[in-house]
Fold this protein.
Amino acid sequence: DAKTTQPPSMDCAEGRAANLPCNHSTISGNEYVYWYRQIHSQGPQYIIHGLKNNETNEMASLIITEDRKSSTLILPHATLRDTAVYYCIVRPSLDSGGGADGLTFGKGTHLIIQP
Amino acid sequence: SQTIHQWPATLVQPVGSPLSLECTVEGTSNPNLYWYRQAAGRGLQLLFYSVGIGQISSEVPQNLSASRPQDRQFILSSKKLLLSDSGFYLCAVDSGGFSYNSPLHFGNGTRLTVT
């Protein structure tokens, strides 16, 4: 499995854009980059995922570098409720031999939104 | 959209007692189902996954077992709990099949304390 590297913690001011980096230099060509977050005492929440192109949804934007070795999750206008641990995950490809496989979570980035 | 039901939300059990946690899913057919555990202060660990009725794959040898008696029902069990079984247990689901492009969605979890 491709591994990811994230800073252990980050601060961001409320109302500003939060940019969370992730390094995945050993990613394979058919592996997606997934982002999840976990607010204290809750289950992980899916945010966004992508393969090559940048992606945007109602929660965030995902910017993937052209060589796919790194990505950035952008929360455009951070609020206090965005304080959470954010996980960047490269999902193993599913193939006819392996069937399903789960997500491997690392330690993530603890994002703290400051008022 | 998928709905994941997990119960109970919290559970306190003595060492040596049995365990049965149930997860049911609505809004999807033939899903892949997963059990994760998060020990206090630690990351999420994949315990079991299932691609269909009666099919269980174990990721980590342990004191626990899983079963899938129906398409949208996933059960986590133990005959005799250990102190080390304490943790936050999460059920997750994706749409199944061999798609590369299927996010996992998590339930709200069961917080188990073994005393």
